[in-house]
Amino acid sequence: MQIDATRQRIPSGESQAWRAAWRLATSEVLFGLAVACTGVGVVAMMGLLQMPTLGTDDPVAFSRWATAARQQQGELFDLLTTLGLNNVMHAVWWQVAALLSLLIATLRFADVLAWARYAQHNAAILDEERASVIHTTPSLQRLAAWLQDQALRTREVGENTLAALSGWRSHVAAGLLYGGVMLTSAALLVDARLGWLAGEQLLVAEVPISLPDQRTLMLSQAGDDAYQFRIEPSGSTVALREGQSGALDGVSLHTKRVVEGYRASAERAGQALRLRASNLALPTTELRFVLDEDEPEQFLALPEAQLALALRYKASEAPMLQVFALPSGSVITTAALTPSLIVGDVRLVFRPAPAVSVEAAFLPGRPFALVGAALATLGAVGTFLWPRRRVLLLQRGEWLEIYAAGRGALPLARRLVQQLTALAASSDSPTQGA
């Protein structure tokens, strides 16, 4: 007699609540969903322009990003921003998904180690589902031979108990899969916590900009075809050409384009005058600035001469300069920007200064995430080819109980039952239905 109790689980001394919690925490559905959500975020980071970490606290970089992102995404920009796909590293749903991926992968990795060490030597029912109970009396040696033909390793773990387990390749593949997901998820979470994106920055020679981690970056020297960047406080430098990428103290740099920069100064009767770029900036005898389509206007003040300057960028034309009297605001002169201009008794000087548009990012976990993704991919392929399986056969008098766990294990157990049934029908072996 055969009693089919497919997918029935046996507590085996453990509380049902604990086993239910374990199955939920390590379920393939939850794991797949967490990994899929994490992957969606990673794809978005690769394909969509991501918001600078400082957001609107760096209005210039934020404005450049918003303009470029709208051009890239069109009408989808607002929707993608609302979903967090334009700022994935700081999206709560993505961080939760990455954390779940890490936790479940860790539990499953521990389970792989436990299987590899104990499953073939343990007569206890671990997490197997009861596939069938059949009234038959075959020898365990005969059952072992059949299971070995199915590429399973067998071992008698008790007087009346036979354990069959998939080979070492299945454990290695599963270990690579879950270990790779662990490494990738942990690296991504490190980037979300410690990393940053500065967005596109315009660097004028010897004018430092502050990075999100309080370090400063500046264009220290410029040659005919290469530009040298320096990061403080370490003082490390790297030389890059236009369109080239490099790294500096863990900061990834990519030079996008060279733009026109200027060094502005003023003098009266041979004495240098101080200029100010804003009410918050300290006056200096030389100001450095950029004029291009992203920063089309610059305003400077010469309090000592009671003058204000407005410089405006024009595509395919020389920039325009307007000089105003303070405090009246009346226009004194409007002219094309030239290296030298006389306004009353004041001489204005505008010297060319090299300037480079550069993207900066600090993602310390990225190399580990790439390694983890490669391992997980290998493991996924290996798991598809060699799935983990465990079949446990318990001989209780004239009854044989069959338990199975792992992808494809239940169909394999059913084939074993069919084999035994067919064998009983063609021999004198007592197999009866009840």
Structure keywords:
TATA-Binding Protein; single chain; disordered C terminus; 434 residues; 7-stranded antiparallel β-sheet; disordered N terminus; alpha+beta
The largest sheet is: 7 strands, antiparallel
Q: Which descriptor suits the 3D outline?
A: rod-shaped
Beta-strand portion reads 25-35%
Summed over residues and divided by their number, the pLDDT gives a mean of: 84
Structural class: alpha+beta
Count of DSSP-assigned helices: 9
Find the count of extended strands (DSSP E, 2+ residues): 22
Q: If you compute it from the alpha carbons, what radius of gyration comes out, rounded to the nearest whole angstrom?
A: 35 Å
Secondary structure: helix percent: 25-40%
* Sequence stretches where pLDDT stays below 50 over 5 or more residues: 1-14, 428-434
- Kindly report how far apart the N and C termini lie: 4 Å
